[in-house]
Amino acid sequence: MTPLLKTLHLSLERPHPLDKRADRERLIHSIQKELGTSIPIDLDLRHLRDLPRLLREGAFSITLTVCLLPDRAQVVSLGKGTPYGLAIDIGTTNMAASLIDCKTGEKVCQAERENPQIEAGTDVLTRVHRAMAGEGERLHDLLIQGLNSLIEDICKASATAPHEIYALSIAGNTIMTHFLLGLPVENIPIDPYIPVSHGFDFLRPDELGLGINPSGVVYVFPNAGSYVGGDIIAGILS
Questions:
Q1: Hey, which end of the chain has fewer CB within 10 Å, N or C?
Q2: Sheet order of strands, 61-68 included
Q3: Contact, 198 vs 224, CB < 8 A?
Q4: pLDDT tens profile 40-87
Q5: Is 166 helix (H, G, I), strand (E, B) or coil?
Q6: How far apart are CA 142 and CA 118, in angstroms?
Q7: Cα separation of 65 and 81, whole Å?
């Protein structure tokens, strides 16, 4: 499996009178050459503002981290430092997280926390009934608050700052995944048991209100059916 994050150490060709490419285009060409691909490279405005200074301070050598997406690569960090990834399992009763050093692939820390949706019901079908009664947004908010508390727990335990986490993968059963994304769940437990979606696009942390680096990427494991969720898919892959 290809990891979401990859750290690159690049030495760019310096500008000269016969090579007047802009800093951004010079960097993108170097990234594509290093990756051996011509896929688009996304570089957001936040990083673009820092690029001229970092290139010249480093004599046009630079370390950066990219997120490898199916059809493009996204620059998530410019400069040195350790990029971290976070893997979270959302269970009906408990949530568990593992913090990964994306340079070494080693697990740095893990943490657990009770799923706060328990206050709305100890089993998933009770929560579905509460959502069908108009409490879907509340159940979504409870889950996001719990996940952010879990992120805070693991950052404190590992002396890691939330902005150092650039990739977040989340697995849960089909209903938990729908609660996470704020999707309707009322059709899942009723024949013919149809979810809103089996697969999901890569998301930005701010789309879900999750407290990691805003330039990072969130991957939600797909579900294979109404009762075969992303937690089972993740387990099979593992």
A1: N
A2: 5-11, 61-68, 73-78, 41-42
A3: yes
A4: 999 989 899 999 999 999 999 999 999 988 889 999 888 877 889 999
A5: strand
A6: 9
A7: 9
The pLDDT of residue 190 is 86
> If DSSP codes are grouped into helix, strand and coil, which group holds residue 230?
helix
Q: What is d(CA 144, CA 95) in angstroms, rounded to the nearest whole number?
A: 11
* Residue at token pair 């990756």: 35
The CA–CA distances, whole Å, from 98 to 95, 232, 234 equal 11, 17, 14
Instruction: Give the 3-state secondary structure of residue 234.
Output: helix
* Reduced DSSP (H G I as helix, E B as strand, rest coil) percent helix, strand, coil of the chain, to 5: 35, 25, 35
At 95 the three-state DSSP class reads strand
pTM: 0.85
CA 133 – CA 121 distance, rounded (Å): 13
Nearest-5° Cα angle at 75, 27 to 54: 50
Locus of tokens 């947004």: 137
The answer to whether 88 and 96 are in contact (CB under 8 A) is yes
Residue 190 burial (C-beta neighbours within 10 Å; 0-12, 13-18, 19+)? exposed
| Torsion sign over Cα 232, 166, 93, 139 | negative
Output the six-digit token pair for 233: 């898919």
In total, the chain counts a number of residues equal to: 238
Number of Cβ atoms within 10 Å of the Cβ of 24: 14
103 pLDDT band, cuts 50/70/90, is: confident
Q: With a cut of 90, say whether residue 189 has pLDDT above it.
A: no
67-70-71 Cα angle (round to 5): 95
